[in-house]
Every structure is written in C-alpha cells, then in structure tokens.
Amino acid sequence: MTMLTVDVGLESPHEYTTGISVAEIIRNVHGKKSGAVAATVDGNQVDLSYEIHSDCTVLPIIGSSEEGLYILRHSCAHLLAQAVLEFFPDAKPTIGPPIEHGFYYDFQMPAPSEEELRAIEKRMKELVKQNLKVEREEYDIETLREMFADNQFKIEIMDEKIGEGSGSSVYRQGDFVDLCRGPHVPSTSHLRWFKLTNVSTAFWRADSSRETLVRIYGMCYSSKEDLQARETLLREASKRDHRKLGKDLKLFHIDEMVGQGLILWTPRGTVVRNELQQFISEHLNRQGYQQVYTPHIGKLDLYRTSGHFPYYQDSQYPPIIERDTLRQLSDEGCSCGDLSNLMSEGEIDGYMLKPMNCPHHIRIYASQQRSYRDLPLRLAEFGTVYRWEQSGEISGMTRVRGFTQDDAHLFVTEDQIEQEVLGCIELVKVIFGTLGMDDYRVRVGLRDSDSDKYVGEPERWDKAEQACRNAAASLGVEFSEEPGEAAFYGPKIDFVVKDVLGREWQLGTVQVDYNLPERFDLTYTGSDGEKHRPVMIHRAPFGSMERFCGVLIEHFGGMFPTWLSPTQVHILTISEKHIAYAEEINMKLSELGIRSEMDTGDDTIGKKLRTHRAMRPAYLLILGEEEASNSTVSYLGPDRQQVNGVDVQKFIDSLIDEIQNKS
RNA sequence: GCCACUGUAGCUUAGUUGGUAGAGCAUCUGAUUCGUAAUCAGAAGGUCAGGAGUUCAAAUCUCCUCUGUGGCUCCA
Fold it and tell me: Is the same domain home to A83 and A184?
C-alpha cells in the first residue's frame, strides 16, 4: 500500500494511505466537528468524498467561509429543485446558482403560489431531516444526454459546455439528479438555515426572446444566527423603505396623473432637499465652483453635436417639434418613420428635454475666448435632466425619469486632472462624513486594453487613469480598479456608499472626458499663445437629489438629523391654558429660522405624542403648567429621551448649536 | 421593454359560489381641557384604477389600457 505525503496546512505534512478520502483526512486533522462542507486539493475545490491518490495539499472549506457559503447555497439550490420536482413533476430545472445571501433556481413551470412556495420550503426541511447523501457520479456525454433527454435546457448547457467525447458529473440526492460540476455538501443535513424568499421570472439565458422561466429565490446561511440576522435586516430594510416613509412622512409624492418616474417634492421633502443643496453649495463655493442655471430643453442640433442624439434616442423622451414644422410635415403626408429619419439626419430641427447638462455647460465655456488663466473652469448646476428609463425599471425615488443632478463640469488642462479629481473626492468625503456615511468605497473604472471602443490616445488614457488612481489613493479611500468599466470617452470613479444597514448604494461618478471637448471643438489659449484642447471632468458626486434623498431616507429610517429634519421642533400643549406660552416659544423659534410646528388641539398629551412621534421631528416639546410658570421647556430629543425643565434660552442655544454644527 | 403578480375612501383594509360596498385611523362638527404611544359622540367621505364586453344583475367573470410590486434586460 502506497503512502502519501499530504500537506494539511500544519507545520509538518501528514502521511496517509492512497485512496483515502479528504473527509477522512479532515476528520483526522480537524476533528469531527470541523465544520467542513468541502475541501480544496492543491487549490481545486472538491467534494469531501474525493479520494487522494498522490501527494497534495488538502485544506477544508468551512461552511461559514465565503467559499463554504457558496457551496452551501449551491447545494441549497439543488435541494430546492428536488422539492419543486416532487410538487411539479413536469417542471424543467434549468440553472440554479448561488448568489449573495442565497441562491435561486430557474424552472420552466407555472408560477407557484405563496402557499405552494411555503409547501416547497417545508418539503425542503423534511429532506434536510432525512439527511440524504449527496453523491457525485461521472458519465460520458452520451449517457448524460440520455439522462436529461427530457430537459432541453440541460441539453443546451451540455451542447455548449461539454465537448464531444468528454463527460461531466451529476449530483444525486434521493431520487433527484442534477447536472453539475460541484462540489456539494456531503449530505442534505448541512442545509439547515435557509428560507425561500420570493418568486419571480427570468429569461432563459437572460435573453428576452427565449423562454420565460420561473425563478425561485432563497437565502441560505451556515448558522441560525446568520439567517436570523439577515431576516432582521430585511425586516428593518422594509420598514425603512423610502417609498413607504416618503408617503408616511409626506416627503414626496408620485402621481399617476403626472407620470411614471416623475417626483413631486412636497413641502417637507423640499426642506430636506434645499438643506442638502445649500450645504453642497457652500462647499462648491469653497472649492472655486461657479454656479449656473441652464434651461430644461435645448436644440436637437446641440445633442447631435454632443452625440447624445440619436445615439441614446431610445432612452430619451421623444423630441419636441415646432408647431409650424409639424403642420408642414403633416401637409406633406410625412409618416412617423420619415419624421424620425429626418430628425436623425438633421433635416429638421426641434428641441429635446435635456438628458445631460454638459452640452449647455459646454456652450457657456464656448461663449467666450478662454485662456489657460481661466482654467480650471468649474461650472456647477443642480441641473434637472430627463431620461426615458424603461417602465419596468422605475421605482420610487431611486429610478426615475426626471431628476436633478448635483452636476458640474470642470474644464481643465491635462496637468490639472489629478488635482481636480481629488477635489471632487474631497467634497464627497466631507459630505458623506457629515451625514454619518463614513463607510464608502470608490471604484476606479479603467479601460479594457483589448477593446478599441475608446476615444483618445493611449498615452493620455494612461495619464488620466493614473490621475484617478492617485486621487483615490491620496485620500486614503478604499478603492478598487475595474478594467473595462471606463466610459468610452475616459476613465471614471464611482462612489459606492454603505448605509447603516450595510447595504451598498451606487451614487455618483467623476468622469474624465476627452470626447466632448473634441466634438465641440473647445479650445483655450496656452501660455505659448497656441490653441489647446481642454479636458472635461463630469462629476455628480451624489448622482441625483432624488436618488440621494431616497438613500438618506432609508439610511436615517426617516429620522433625519436635526439640521435636515423637515420639522425640527413640534410643540405640544398639555391644555388650552398653555397655548399662549406655546405660541410665544413657537414665535421665538421661527424668528431664529428653526422649523417648528404647534399642536394646540384638544387631544390628550398621550395622543399628541403618538401622532407627532410618527412624523419623526428632531424635538418634541411638551408645554404645560410646569413649563409655563418657570419659563422652561420639557422635551423628547432626537434620542427620544425625556429632559424636563430646561431653561428656554438654554434649549434654544443648544438647538442652534446643534443645527449649525450639523451634529 | 419583457414576464408574473397587484389596484376597494387621504391611509390600512373586510367583502362567501356574480345579488348592488363595511370597518379602523385621518378629516369635519359637537362635548371634553386632560402631564407622556389612541377622550367620547356624531357627520361627511367610494363612477370598487380606467375603458369595453358577458349577464336580468359585475368590486367579483373575460379582454384592453394605466399604475404599483418582484424579477429579467438596459443605464450617457
């Protein structure tokens, strides 16, 4: 019997007889309760049943590790398919991969109802209790074709992924068999902590012209605690849903009659937006930006020059045509198709709702001669743009058809790119910091060296990419480089922020652009007296006010910090004897620019507290006999702890302090 | 845009196999003037998302449109 030398990750290797399974090795090294769900042999993932026949390195994959969770979730997808097939024998399983937090499996089948979903879940739990062995079997392709002959999806996968003459593996648990590379957990008892979450649809191969499939999603973890933590988080997230809070707290309204994806900012929401815009403006001024206003529409020709029309025609509102032109075209019997062609070819002109602010800003740049002394020229605008998002995409404030970018365009020399990109990131850092969103990262989007879709010379790209890298690095912000993620016209930086629940939100970007200055033939006079081409930087660090406010609502769960709070103080009176005192305080607060509101109605104080708490003001003042006779206030602060008998002036001073410090 | 589901008063919702809409909160009017998460009583409020159809009869069945939700796809 041959002995093998196996590196088990300890100081000295172990010796085993050939043919030993990795499960036995792991049990030998790490004990019975190793928590292993699979293993790696020389870095390759294998099942625990895998047998060793030569010297190698064997390391366990623990269920709670990232790799281990991936395997648990993958196995859980199989378990789902097994249960589904028991209820729906005609269902055709297609693919079932692990995903973040869980897994899904796509089937060709009728959509299961909520009750059926719960029944499937229950059955999965039973299958776990049965502790079915999950076994790997290998077959040649002909045999596999026979085994899955009744499932055209599996056949299609085989045709594509498995070469003629070769084979692949299947995994069997009970009477369920699935084509799969593995590895998988050794038995179903490892799959205890899962839950089916929702049913949706997807297309086979993500191709809308192919079959529609039913996708069942589930979450899966290695421990009860992790599963429960995830469930708690999801519950908390749904409580914070900005669509619900936006309605409850009267922050914004979306009206069927106005249109899909169009936000109506109600007075309370407008306060939040204005405070934010004002805050951002202060920083813009500090950083040498100049603010501008530009109209919501512009001539088609402007967007022909910029390239937005007709390239992005499908994701824009259709153009606006002048009345006389329309009349004339109509007299000539022009069809819609003709009209569209005429517009694309530039035969007729019209106006477009702006999908971007840059063309307008570029024309401001071009409105006068520029010299190197003018650069960097930084034009900022809270500019509202309109884009025709697909109807199925539109959601709350985060995916809309009309939105206001905290936009700016910087016209710079090539040497200024790095410093200006740095300035953009600095601004983001300050504002995220103020809002308590300290956890964020940036993605540096670089070009894909194999592609030729990019405009501009490679040397300039190298320089700009390095500038973005340096800027990100010099701020000590966590960043990742992502080749292939650049826009065709230049490298970019995306901001991804984590909210209090740890959810990531992609907000704004900073993008270097060589293309538009070229298209608009922008120039500046250098110190050498020659004409040079400026470089543009687009930046909208928060993306849009709509999206950003939506994220903030969820981040704060509707409980805004005092400076942002739509109403900062709600004054509640105990009885009508204290109305005069309440009015006096309300007046004082209003004069100081503090947003306060009174409830002098005849509800009991308990009822008033209940009502006003629901609106999440920063402070709830309670004014009665005690307070009126001593010139004090009692309040529930942002932490909802009660403080009694505070001198009015002291209260006001600390409130103003808090607002000014944005603390 | 595609697929599935969904839509009843401002909000949350009840409404059996088709028989002609009921409640709570909010609103308004009275009464009550009260110290910490719902004071009492009364009134008003609905072309049951919109349209067409089937039927003696439609919130309920069929079709179309619109909105919303979950996904897919897309995102300058």
Answer: yes
Q: For chain A, how many structural domains are there in total?
A: 5
Between CA A55 and CA A30 the distance in angstroms is 19
Checking DSSP bridges between strand A596-599 and strand A569-573, what pairing results, if any?
A: parallel
Domain that holds residue A37: 3-62
Residue A519 has pLDDT above 90, yes or no: yes
Amino acid code (one letter) for A274: N
* Nearest nucleic acid nucleotide to A627, CA to C1' distance: B35
In a domain, A247, yes or no: no
% chain A with pLDDT above 70: 100
Using the predicted structure, report yes or no on whether residue A488 has a pLDDT greater than 90: no
pLDDT in tens, A280-302: 999 999 999 999 999 999 999 99
Confidence of residue A448 (pLDDT cuts 50, 70, 90): confident
pTM: 0.91
Is residue A593 located within the same domain as residue A500?
no
pLDDT score recorded for residue A349? 84
Q: Is the CB of A661 under 7 A from strand B?
A: no
Contact, A164 CB vs strand B, < 7 Å: no
pLDDT band with cut points at 50, 70 and 90 for residue A559: very high
* Lookup: nucleotide whose C1' is closest to A113 CA: B5
A111 CB closer than 7 A to any strand B atom: yes
CA separation, residue A336 to residues A148, A307, A326, A340 (Å): 50, 22, 11, 6
> Do the bridges between strand A3-7 and strand A56-62 make them parallel or antiparallel, or are there none, so unpaired?
parallel
Q: How confident is the model at residue A170 (pLDDT cuts 50, 70, 90)?
A: very high
Are both A225 and A317 inside the same structural domain?
no
Q: Is residue A598 part of a domain?
A: yes
Query: Half-sphere exposure (CA, 13 Å, Cβ side) for A318?
Result: 8
Q: Using H for helix, E for strand and C for coil, what is the string for A184-211?
A: CCCEHHHCCEEEEEEEEEEEHHHCCCCC
A336, pLDDT greater than 80: no
Element (H, E) at A105: strand A102-108
Residue A343 sits in the same domain as residue A478: no
Residues A415, A542 within the same domain: yes
Mean pLDDT of A145-172: 87
* Residue A625 CB in 7 A reach of strand B: yes
Amino acid (1-letter code) at residue A424: C
CA–CA separation, A366 vs A308, rounded Å?
A: 19
Cα end-to-end distance, chain A, whole Å: 73
Q: Quickly give A603 CA vs B41 C1' distance in Å.
A: 15
A250 falls within a domain: no
Mean pLDDT, residues A482-496:
89
Render the burial of A359-380: b for 16+ CB within 10 Å, e for the rest: bbbbebbeeeebeeeebbbbbb
> Do residues A388 and A467 both lie within one domain?
yes
Residue A259 in domain: no
β-strand partners of A170: A137, A179
Q: What angle do CA A229, A234, A238 make, to 5 degrees?
A: 150
**DSSP character at residue A242:** H
Do A286 and A305 belong together in one domain? no
Note the pLDDT tens digit of each residue in A96-124. 999 989 999 999 988 887 788 888 999 99
Is A442 found in the same domain as A382? yes
- Whether A621 CB is under 7 Å from strand B: no
Between the alpha carbon of residue A607 and those of residues A242, A525, A602, A628, the distances in Å are 26, 69, 10, 21
Protein-contacted positions of strand B (CB under 7 Å): 1-5, 11-12, 26, 31-39, 66-76
